[in-house]
Amino acid sequence: MAVFTPLSQAQVAEFLQRFDVGTLTQIEGVPSGTENTTYFVTTDRQALVLTLFEQGEHDELPFFVDLLDYLADHRLPVPGPVHDCQGVALQSLAGKPALLFPRLPGKHPSSPNLAQCEALGETLGHMHAVSRHFDGHRPNPRDLHWLVAMHHRVLVYLSADDQALMSDEVDAYQAFFGDAPDLPQGALHGDLFRDNTLFDGERLGGIIDFYNGCTGDLLFDLAIVINDWAVHADGSLDAARHDAILRAYQARRPLTDAERAAWPMMLRMTALRYWLSRLLVVYVDPPAHDLTPHDPEQFRTILLSRLQNGALALPEIHPA
Prior knowledge:
The chain is an alpha+beta fold. It has helices at 9-16, 61-73, 114-131, 144-150, 160-179, 218-229, 239-252, 257-284, 297-309, and strands spanning 24-29, 37-43, 47-52, 91-93, 96-102, 185-188, 197-200, 203-207, 214-217.
């Protein structure tokens, strides 16, 4: 249960008086999530989501507020924070930073179909096209510098073969990206798995949970998506879903030549990023709350598939 700070009906009702959102009728704790407390809040006027931030760098929360405000202003399906009657979004409740959001329609797609993949690709391409002009800045906390610094912490828990695999991969990324041309930069979601989207049928109702949001290589975000949305259980890529996402994405933001050249290596690097982060949770830095960590083996399997099979050809985009 991801309700680490219990709230009473009276606490939430008093909190809502800061906003022009109506009168509280119901609160419900949300069981999903790994880091923050989340409640569904219903008033006589609308459905909302209340999030209390339990851990992490609270001084970075204004970045997330600014990013969501910016994307919502550009008509992207994100939960732009609700601002209070004085125009302030970031609040405090029960001694924790708190944000109130509109509740977006839909549910997570467990097995996305091609129409859902196309909708996700089109929206991500739109988001990246406009996010290049976002003036906020938060360095990517899981980029190559992080991989270089952190992978040593899990090597002792790995087999000799996996130690060599991880170390060789990090060396390969340093060699490749150290000499590669700069890639297009912008604001990223940073964790755009299927369970961070909401679909109402084939319509994308929302992209949620921007708490890995940052600025950096746009290609990094896209590779995370492909490694989750377009894979089979054995880690291999599903060509139809892969192409549906990438064609729709490039209709909004065509990849540059440098991005196309970097694509196979970026798929490998983002696979290792999740293999490493999950190993760290299992062996080095377990969650503060009693939650089951994600299985690191899933992304080791994906990495091995990218090494053995390479990347699929990127679909060509021909101007109309």
